Amino acid sequence: MAHKILVLNGPNLNMLGLREPTVYGHETLADVEKMCVEVGTGHGFDVECLQTNHEGVLIDRIHAARGTVAGIVINPGAWTHTSIAIHDALIAAEVPVLEVHISNVHKREEFRHHSYVSRVAVGVLAGFGTHGYKLAIDHFGKLLK
Ligand code: DQA
Asked: 13, 31, 83, 85: which could form a disulfide with 79 (CB 3.0–4.6 Å)?
């Protein structure tokens, strides 16, 4: 059975392409998810993508990843900076996590500089645009070989 990679996107990322294109670019979420499936398939992964604006939905999906998913690529959006609940859920899942931010959060507002997710992530990609998702999946390609 192929390893499964879960690509999770948090709030407002459904607005990619429309939302602040100077910060997040012109690609849509559909473009990003398609690319993730292509890249993951190239590594022999089964890729599942989920975007939600509801924190509990994300937490439930993270819990269900326990024992069934080999790696999680997550852009938690603004929950990055606020959610101890997502931090706790990722620990409970016991699945390796790569955190992705399209923008370089460290050169933006102060409130974006702290991440609850980074504490539980294998690595963090920030500022690579949507290419960060590809880099994360490629890394799982190495890590989970
Ligand atoms: C983001 C950065 C967050 O600070 C912001 O709230 C987002 C997107 C990024 O991909 O750069 O929604 O995670």
From this structure: 83
**DSSP for 80-95, written as a single string:** GGT-HHHHHHHHHHT-
32, 75, 116, 117: residue to mutate for ligand 1 pocket, most atoms within 8 A of CB: 75
Q: What is the mean pLDDT of residues 8-20?
A: 96
Residue (of 43, 84, 46) closest to 65 by Cα position: 46
Domains, the chain, in order of start with CATH, read 3-143 (3.40.50.9100)
Is ligand 1 within 6 A of the CB of residue 12? Answer: yes
pTM for the full predicted model? 0.97
Q: Ligand 1 center to residue 1 CA distance, Å?
A: 33
